[in-house]
Amino acid sequence: MGGPLTGVTVVTLEQAVSAPMCTRTLGDLGARVIKVENPAGGDFARHYDDVVGGLAAHFVWANRGKESVALNLKSEAGLAILHRLLDRADVLVSNLAPGTTARLGLSPADLEVRHPALIPVEIDGYGPGGPLSHKRAYDMLVQAESGACSVTGRPGAPAKPGPPVADVCTGLYAALSVLALLYGKGRGGPPSSVAVSMFDTMAELMGYPLTYTLHSGIEQQPLGMGSPAVAPYGAYPTGDGQTVVLGTTNDAEWQRLARELIGRPDLADDERFRTNAGRVEHRAPLDEAIGAWCGRHDLAYVQARADAAGIGNARYNTAKDVLAHEQLTARDRWRKIGTPSGPVPALLPPPVIAGYDPPMGAVPSLGEHTDAVLAELGFGARDIAALREQGAVR
């Protein structure tokens, strides 16, 4: 079965993580993704580190299945080649520095005139029209600016959430927007463009704390592995040196945790803990009681009892633990993908579409597909050699 986006061509001018995650998602769904890179080094994420056989972990993660075409867009010939690509493309995704697409004549308004059927997607830091619109934006900077770091970590010790959630979620919102616009176009709707900013994305992800503070005037403090919104909900050391995470989300679950899991009907009957609001206010004695019970038992026993009582639970894992996680192994979630330094393991994308196997294509070397793509555009071998001599392509 072909992918849902088979036949869709995406051209991308991308760096780092947000746009690459957008286009990798579209590629996972069957789109052809042509990654246009600067001949002088390409996507700078290629050079973050060299841990994957000389390749960067970020780049390998976010760029499988793409074709790399190295074009010098500062040259007239390179920019002309890009426009020939766009003549055949359905989508252009970009996340270049503020103002770059406009300087190249690739703003949505420019493209509407020259490539009216194209869907332009611009990913940036702060969105146009504001006092921060000119600023460069990276994941940690936007997480700090949006308040995400203030609700992560501990009071007085804020932290950036470990995964690059601003980058990834912005990329996913952009991919979702592309799907919506392709659907509308397929139904005869007018062509359109979309802009997605990292700051707007993080403001959306901050929806709960922003809403809470807006209506209460209170800025909830971060609780490390806990949640300021719900109690009990946290991490507790077990007797065998592991850590279990237990969570309740409603009053019935709390009653089961108190009575069936830790054997404390006195806590279940305590009026202070009858509602979630009360449990949040009196969190400390609950954590103390749950922690004491968990500390007397090993992890396997705690989790078995929690499962029997219908209480959500998990083991605190590190990255090494997840690499060997039985859930991934049992469900055959690992595949091998090609890279310039040989095959490496990679996880399948999250969506499981019946009858469709994601392509899991190779990670490209810089300019690996330049000649092949130029040949598709009608350039002969001598033409390509001349372009390379001019420095227009690599």
Please give a structural write-up.
With 394 residues, this protein is an alpha/beta fold. The chain is 41% helix and 14% strand. The strands form four sheets. It has a six-stranded parallel beta sheet with strand order 3-2-1-4-5-8, sandwiched between helices. Strand 12 and strand 13 form a beta hairpin. Helix 1 crosses helix 7 and helix 7 crosses helix 8.
Backbone CA Rg = 25 Å
By DSSP (H or I, 4+ residues per run), the number of helices equals 18
Task: Give the fraction of residues assigned to helices.
Answer: 40-55%
Question: What structural class results from the helix and strand content?
Answer: alpha/beta
Instruction: Outline the biggest β-sheet.
Output: 6 strands, parallel
3D shape: elongated
The average pLDDT is 97
List the topology elements.
Blueprint: E1 9-13, H1 18-28, E2 32-37, H2 57-62, E3 66-70, H3 76-88, E4 91-94, H4 100-103, H5 108-114, E5 119-124, H6 139-145, E6 153-154, E7 157-158, H7 165-186, E8 194-197, H8 198-205, H9 207-216, E9 233-237, E10 243-247, H10 251-261, H11 265-269, H12 276-281, H13 283-295, H14 299-309, E11 312-315, H15 319-323, H16 326-330, E12 334-337, E13 344-347, H17 370-376, H18 381-390
List keywords for this structure.
three-stranded antiparallel beta sheet; alpha/beta; six-stranded parallel beta sheet; 394 residues; elongated
Provide a brief overview of the structure.
With 394 residues, this protein is α/β, with parallel strands linked by helices. The protein is built from 18 helices and 13 strands.
